């Protein structure tokens, strides 16, 4: 179990000092806990004995055991397909049957990671036409960002799919207004450039950052208004984005169906123009 999850399990029983320790760790997770115990204590304005009691309360056999767990999390965050490959993994039936079973497991886990209240809150943000919506993903996960943007711009206006090229980001940032939404998809092997973009959007443009990530948590967490951490481990050479795609589809469906008259009008106008432009393109 991750250190973050252990803290969540006992959060209600933490003392005020332990809550301060937890906040200091979460502000720079997991790296704050990888410093010396004295440095961590100084940063959290507490003492090394207090930290020792805190990590024992989390179930660790001392500060070194606590740090070993954090180091393992850092390793997992950077895992590549080469690291994930298992040459002798056990399968249930044939390959395809086994893979679908793994995907179902991910969907079951994902359904427990986000509350109905948070889900509706995110949908409300993306539906609010007073907000501009700006969407981007990582090297691979940008396909999910494109999927979200292609559908969302049929439902409402003022939706912008950001380019993967950072050279275009200054213009994107200047376009952002306070309370706009920057929706970022960032899974492990996180991209430092996306972190800088999210930081500037949040601090310079006062935009709300919605982060779709995994259980190891992209560093963009520090600048996010909403964070959805979904399971991606398929037990195969590739991480799976199946749960993330289903989550995005659920968001799009709720937004469209909650105000269907407006969505219907926008989709109709979009389709009419798309068909006209297709006729022009394919004409003589």
Description of the molecule:
This protein folds into 2 domains: 3-77, Winged helix-like DNA-binding domain superfamily/Winged helix DNA-binding domain (Arc Repressor Mutant, subunit A, Orthogonal Bundle); 107-275, Glucose-6-phosphate isomerase like protein, domain 1 (Rossmann fold), CATH 3.40.50.10490. Helix content is 55%, strand content 8%. The chain has 13 helices and 5 strands. It has a 5-stranded parallel β-sheet with strand order 2-1-3-4-5, sandwiched between helices. Helix 9 (142-155) links the parallel strand 1 (133-137) and strand 2. The radius of gyration is 22 Å and the shape is globular. The N and C termini lie far apart (63 Å). The model has no long low-confidence stretch (mean pLDDT 86).
List the helices and strands and how they pair.
Elements: H1 3-10, H2 16-27, H3 37-44, H4 48-57, H5 63-77, H6 81-84, H7 95-110, H8 116-127, E1 133-137, H9 142-155, E2 159-161, H10 169-175, E3 181-185, H11 192-203, E4 208-213, E5 226-229, H12 242-258, H13 260-281
Parallel strand pairs: 1-2, 1-3, 3-4, 4-5
Can you summarize this structure?
The protein has 284 residues and is of the alpha/beta class. Helix content is 55%, strand content 8%.
Count the beta strands: 5
Mean pLDDT: 86
Helix run count: 13
Shape summary: globular
Distance between the termini: 63 Å
What oligomeric arrangement do these chains adopt?
A: single chain
Assign a percent range to the helix content.
55-70%
At CATH level 3, the topology of the largest domain is Rossmann fold
SSE ordering: HHHHHHHHEHEHEHEEHH
The CATH architecture classification of the largest domain is 3-Layer(aba) Sandwich
**What count of structural domains?**
2
Q: At the fourth CATH level, what is the homologous superfamily of the largest domain?
A: Glucose-6-phosphate isomerase like protein, domain 1
The CATH class of the largest domain, by name, is Alpha Beta
- Beta content comes to 5-15%
Q: Could you give a short account of the major beta sheet?
A: 5 strands, parallel
Strand order of the largest sheet: 2-1-3-4-5
Structural class: alpha/beta
Poorly predicted ranges (pLDDT <50, ≥5 residues)? none
User: What does the radius of gyration come to?
Assistant: 22 Å
């Amino acid at each position: 179990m991750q250190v973050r999850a252990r803290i969540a399990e006992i959060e209600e029983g933490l003392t005020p000092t332990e809550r301060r320790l937890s906040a200091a760790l979460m502000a720079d997770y997991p790296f704050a806990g990888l410093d010396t115990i004295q440095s961590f204590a100084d940063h959290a304005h507490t003492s090394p004995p207090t930290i020792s009691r805190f990590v024992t309360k989390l179930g660790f056999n001392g500060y070194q055991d606590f740090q070993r767990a954090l180091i393992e999390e850092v390793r997992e965050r950077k895992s590549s397909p080469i690291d994930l490959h298992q040459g002798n993994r056990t399968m249930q039936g044939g390959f395809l049957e086994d893979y679908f079973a793994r995907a179902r497991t991910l969907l079951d886990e994902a359904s427990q990671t986000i509350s109905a209240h948070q889900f509706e809150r995110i949908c409300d943000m993306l539906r609010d036409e007073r907000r501009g919506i700006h969407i981007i993903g990582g090297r691979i996960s940008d396909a999910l960002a494109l999927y979200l943007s292609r559908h969302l711009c049929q439902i409402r206006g003022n939706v912008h799919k950001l380019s993967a090229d950072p050279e275009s980001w200054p213009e994107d940032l200047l376009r952002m207004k306070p309370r706009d939404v920057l929706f970022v998809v960032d899974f492990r092997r996180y991209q430092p450039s996306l972190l800088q973009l999210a930081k500037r959007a949040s601090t310079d443009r006062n935009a709300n950052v919605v982060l779709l990530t995994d259980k190891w948590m992209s560093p963009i967490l520090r600048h996010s208004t909403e964070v959805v951490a979904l399971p991606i481990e398929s037990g195969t050479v590739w991480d799976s984005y199946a749960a993330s795609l289903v989550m995005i589809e659920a968001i799009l469906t709720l937004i469209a169906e909650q105000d269907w008259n407006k969505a219907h009008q926008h989709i109709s106008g979009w389709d009419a123009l798309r068909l006209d432009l297709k006729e022009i393109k394919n004409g003589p």
